[in-house]
Structures are given as C-alpha cells and as structure tokens.
Amino acid sequence: MKNESKSIMVMAVYAGEILLKNGAETYRVEDTITHICQSANHEYVEVFVTPTGIFVSIDQKGTSNGNMMTFIKRIKTRSINLEKVAQVNDLSRRFVAGALTVTEAMDELKTIEKSTGYPFWQKALVGGLSSALFSVLFGANVVEFVIAFMASVMVNNVTSNMDRASFPLFINHLAGGVTAAVVAVLASSLIPMVELDKVIVGGVIVLVPGVAVTNAIRDSIAGDLISGMAKGAEALIIATSIALGVGAVLKVWLMLLGGILA
Amino acid sequence: MMILRELFIVNFIIYGFAFVFNAPLKSLPKAGLGGSVGWIVYLLTQQITGSVIISTFTGTLMIALLGDFFTTQDRKPLTVFIVPGIVPFVPGFGIYNTMLAIVEQDYPTAVHHGTTTFFVGLAIALALTIMLSINDYRKTKKAAKTKGKSRSVLTHALEDQSESQLLDEQDS
Q1: What letter does residue A259 receive in the DSSP assignment?
Q2: Domain assignment of residue B166, yes or no
Q3: Which of A30, B55, B89, B132 has a C-alpha 20 to 30 A away from that of A64?
C-alpha cells in the first residue's frame, strides 16, 4: 500500500515538474497533481506550487491506511515548450480516466521529457524572421530588417549555447543584450541607413520577458501571490540584465567614438 | 493597405513565436487565427477609443474567447493558443525600455515606460483572468448539475469529504 502511494506521488510530481519547467500556469500544475493523486484513491491532496518548487502532501481516507506523505521538489530551470505542456495534459487526462497504469504513465513522462521539439536551427531561423518582422512593426526598412534578422539569430545562438553550459539567467541575458547591441553598433557605423534602435529591437525581442510580466500579474490577480511575485522578480531581473548589456555597449561606444558615426 | 500589411506581419510573428515556443504543429494555424482576430479587434478599438490599454484589453479578451473555443474543440490546453496569440501585445519592450532608462539615469522616461508596461500587462492579465473565471464558473456549474458533487480539498486529513469530480476541471 505504501509503495503504491509513493509511486503515484512520484509520478504526479514528475508530471507537475515537466509542466512547470515548460511554462504551464501555476494553477494547471496544481490541478494536474491533485487530479492524478485523487484518481488513484488518495482523497486528500494538498499542493503548493511556486515557480521554484512543488510541495505536495497526500493521504488516504481513514486513519488506518499508513501515514500522510509529503514530497518537495525543487525546480531550477524554466523555459517555454507548449508541446510538452499539451502532452502532459493529455497524459494526465488519460491517467485520470483510468486508461494508464502508473508505470506506463511514468515511462511516457520520461519520453516526453526527453523530446527536444523542433530542431534548434529551425527555431533560430523562424525566431529570427519573427523578430525582424517585429522591427518592421517599429518602422524598420529592408536593410534594417536583414540586419535585425542576423542579430536575432546570433542572440539566439549565444543565449542557447550559454544556457546549455548552464550559466545563470542573468549572465545569459546580459550576453544576449551585449550581442544585439554590438551587432547594431557595427551595422549602424558601417551602413549609414541603419538605425541603432531598430536593430536592437529586433535583436532582443526573443529575450524580452513580455509573457513573464503578463503571467506574473495574472498569477497575482488569481491569488497565487508567491508565484506572481517570483515571476515578476524573474521578469525584472531579465529586463535589467538585457538593458545593462545594451546600455554598457552603447556607453562604451559613445566614449570611444563619441558617437560621431551615428 | 497599411492595415493588411500590418495584419500579415502580426500573423507571421504569431506563427513564428508559436514555433519558437514549441507549440504543437497542428495548433499553429488556430493560434495564428486567434491572434490575428485579436489584433483586428485591437486596431478597431484603438480607432474608436485611442487608448492602448483599453484596446489591449479587448484584443486579449477576443484571443481568450477564441482560445477557449479551440480548447474545447481540440482537447489541447488553453496556453497553447493564448501564449503565442498575446505575443504582439505583451509589454516586453516596455519593461526593457524601463530598465534601459533607469540604467541611463533618465528617470522620467523610466516612470513613463514603467507605468505603461504595468497597465498593459494588467490589461492582458485581467482579460485572461476574466475569461478563465467565467469559464471555470460555467464548468463547475455544469459539473454540479450532472454529478451533484463538488471538488474536495484537504482541509483536515482526518475529516471525511465527498468524492471529487476528477475530469471536468482539467482543461482551461
């Protein structure tokens, strides 16, 4: 009985972990864990999810069936992968409906976690095009479009490589901001029709924490105050690091060249 | 003509970001459609009211409404449709500009960008929350009608509680 409880709990928390790491909302993670545990005859489930950790306690009805169990899971990295969120959501549905055993679900979760999604070069290319189009929305011309595209692809490359080498968030985005600003500065000094701002806009749009700001406010409104504050802090840190990177490069450029070539 | 061009650009941006966020391939067209309709609503509202915040609110409301429709159709979580859809509205540059202005010690500009960022973010979050809450309410009401049971929460481990409804609250 005890082992069964344990394996269900481990499975539920694993599902929650994948959801949380890939950008699911706080309430979805809490709901998924609750539903999985309750469907496996654990009537009492209490889940507390923050962006940096999952805390779960489960118990069965009656006093004779063993002890209450608690599981704490630390989450250190977060990104967005909607495919995985959809897959885990589907899996938890099937598990709750009784179509899967715990071991089957566990195996499937492992395959889901290992899947990498679209190849990196495709993502960099499509992301670059979107970012460059963003700078067109801000009024960029064709040359700026091309350079913004290159800047965005380079920024993507730099940050994801550093991500893989597990540098902290702040350093990654700092490097991303520096890359975008260096490309913009070089391009605008070499080609007279290129404006600095528009290339930087295109370059950093993939890094900028817009969705994070929205999710932070959303969680706070919904009453998940700790999640909201944590996400807000993360967004602020990311924005600060990008701005620091860009600002530092612009400052150095101004000091060295006096900005004559702008 | 300008609007058509802008719409095309926004549509592609949504597709692109949906791809970058690894949205399932099948849901891409729907995410793009939802986001584009939201953008049209945004433009129309901006023509009428002239306020970025109000138009962001109505645009997001439209995206959430359509996203909810697609969710029930496809059995995919709502996030898949909403996150790419709100990318053109989302105040990423606002917060970046705020921090850049602070780094450059230009505090009035920082306050200006900061407040706009906050209110645009609030508008998006509010629109999503309103849609989701109405949706939740509708679902729990429907579930209560069909089952006559309510969701149980652990208030005290030894307290007896009714069985929970398991399936109905998972989406959205």
Answers
A1: T
A2: no
A3: A30
Range of the domain at A209: 120-257
Average pLDDT of each block of 10 consecutive residues along chain A (262 residues)?
82 94 90 91 90 91 76 89 92 90 91 88 90 87 91 92 88 94 90 86 88 89 90 91 92 76 48
CB B67, CB B78: distance < 8 Å: yes
**Pair of tokens at residue A44:** 């009492």
Nearest residue in B to A198, CA atom: B93
A25 and A69 assigned to the same domain: yes
Among A114, A129, A148, where does a domain finish? A114
Q: Which residues on chain B are in Cβ contact (under 8 Å) with A132?
A: none
Q: Is A149 helix (H, G, I), strand (E, B) or coil?
A: helix
- Check if the beta carbon of residue A117 is closer than 8 Å to that of residue B20: no
Nearest by CB to A123, from B12, B20, B96: name it: B20
Q: Which of B20, B75, B90 lies at the smallest CB-CB distance from A210? A: B90
* Residue B127 contacts A, CB cutoff 8 Å: no
Q: Token pair of B31, please?
A: 């995410």
CA distance B22 to B12: 15
How many domains does chain B fold into? 1
At residue B86, φ and ψ (nearest 5 deg) are -85, 0
Kindly report whether the global pTM for this prediction surpasses the value 0.95: no
Among A83, A114, A145, identify where a domain stops: A114
